[in-house]
Every structure is written in C-alpha cells, then in structure tokens.
C-alpha cells in the first residue's frame, strides 16, 4: 500500500476539483452552443453560373456552402451571447475586425442580437484564376431581434445584401470581408 503525504493528498484533491470544474464548464458551453441557431444545408444556396474567370469546382462549391453556413452560425452565436470566441476561425481581416467591434459595442451597451430563421442566396461573381479568392453576393433573409436582457426591444424580418470575400484557409474557407450594401 502506498501512503500519500498530506501535501500530495491535497494536490490530488485540487486536481480532481479542477477536472470536475472543467467538465462542468465544457458542458455549459456545449449547451449554450446547442441553444444557438444552426444553419441547415438547404438554408444556404450557391449559384456559380456567373462566376469567372475561373469555373468553381464542385468540391469548392461544397466547401463554400459548408463554411459559409458555419460562419453565420458562429456569427449568430457571437452576437447572441456577446462572446468573441466563435469568431476565431471563420472570420479574418476586416470581417473579423467589424464583428469584434460589434460584439464589444453590445457588451458595453448590455444589448444582444439574435439572428433566427436565416436563409442565404449566394451568387458567385468572381473566382480568381489562382483559386485564392471568391467574391459572393449574399441576399440574406433573417429575423433580427435586439434584446436587453431577456426583453426584445426590436424584432423584425429583414432582407440584407452582403458583398462577401472568402479565401481558402488551412482547413476551410474563411470570410475576409462581409459588407452590407443597399443593392447589387
């Protein structure tokens, strides 16, 4: 039988406590992520018929559909829960800077934004010959709620046009620019 010293026993107890706390925190974060709206495949449509000068390959189309929908799920989560973590990965450059400023502004004001019932109709406009950038026009429809605590202070169905630049990252397409425009 191995006998522990008091110090080793306390250390083992602290480590168990930290492990339990980490598991509880992970469970809490997973349940919050599950509460965030998820975008289904059929809610993002991509038309590549007008893209040029390079044709958009089917594997690239699949990646863009997957990663664009995932990015909007991350955006919705970041703005609903006022956290920056979901922006790491799907957003870079000016898109990430703009969204970071939005989240920080909401944190300062105590407001939150909820994006629900999203649909996105993407039109590929330009696909670089080297395949390193694609310009998309997104006609996005969603229900936008602005919340002060649990109370909705604004609630409307909106149609917004976005000019989007996506570039390939190490393991996914990332949004480099996301800019709302009045029309295309």
Question: What does the model show?
Answer:
The chain is α+β, with helices and mostly antiparallel strands and 184 residues long. It has 2 domains: 1-35; 40-181, Nuclear Transport Factor 2, Chain: A. Helix content is 39%, strand content 34%. It contains 3 helices and 5 strands; from the N terminus they run H-E-H-H-E-E-E-E. The protein has a 5-stranded mixed β-sheet with strand order 1-2-3-4-5. A hairpin with a 2-residue loop joins strand 3 and strand 4.
Q: How many separate structural domains?
A: 2
The helix count comes to 3
Structural class label: alpha+beta
The overall pLDDT, averaged over residues, is 85
Shape: globular
Strand order of the largest sheet: 1-2-3-4-5
Please indicate the percent range of residues in DSSP E strands (runs of 2 or more). Answer: 25-35%
In total, the number of strands is: 5
Radius of gyration: 21 Å
Main β sheet profile: 5 strands, mixed
Kindly summarize this structure in a few lines.
With 184 residues, this protein is α+β, with helices and mostly antiparallel strands.
Secondary-structure topology with pairs:
Layout: H1 6-35, E1 44-47, H2 58-81, H3 93-109, E2 111-127, E3 134-148, E4 151-168, E5 173-181
What key phrases describe this protein's structure?
3 helices; single chain; five-stranded mixed β-sheet; Nuclear Transport Factor 2, Chain: A
């Amino acid at each position: 039988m191995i006998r522990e010293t008091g110090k080793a026993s306390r250390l083992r107890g602290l480590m168990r406590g930290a492990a339990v706390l980490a598991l509880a925190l992970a469970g809490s974060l997973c349940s919050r992520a599950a509460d965030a709206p998820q975008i289904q495949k059929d809610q993002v449509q991509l038309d590549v018929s007008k893209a040029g000068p390079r044709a958009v390959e089917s594997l690239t189309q699949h990646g863009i559909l997957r990663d664009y929908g995932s990015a909007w799920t991350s955006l919705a989560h970041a703005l609903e829960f006022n956290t920056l973590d979901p922006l790491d990965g799907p957003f870079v450059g000016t898109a990430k800077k703009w969204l970071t400023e939005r989240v920080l502004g909401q944190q300062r004001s105590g407001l939150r934004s909820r994006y629900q019932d999203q649909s996105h109709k993407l039109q590929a406009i330009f696909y670089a010959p080297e395949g390193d950038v694609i310009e998309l026009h997104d006609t996005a429809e969603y229900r936008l709620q602005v919340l002060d605590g649990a109370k909705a202070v604004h609630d409307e169905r909106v149609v917004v046009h976005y000019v989007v630049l996506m570039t390939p990252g190490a393991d996914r397409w990332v949004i480099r620019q996301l800019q709302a425009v009045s029309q295309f």
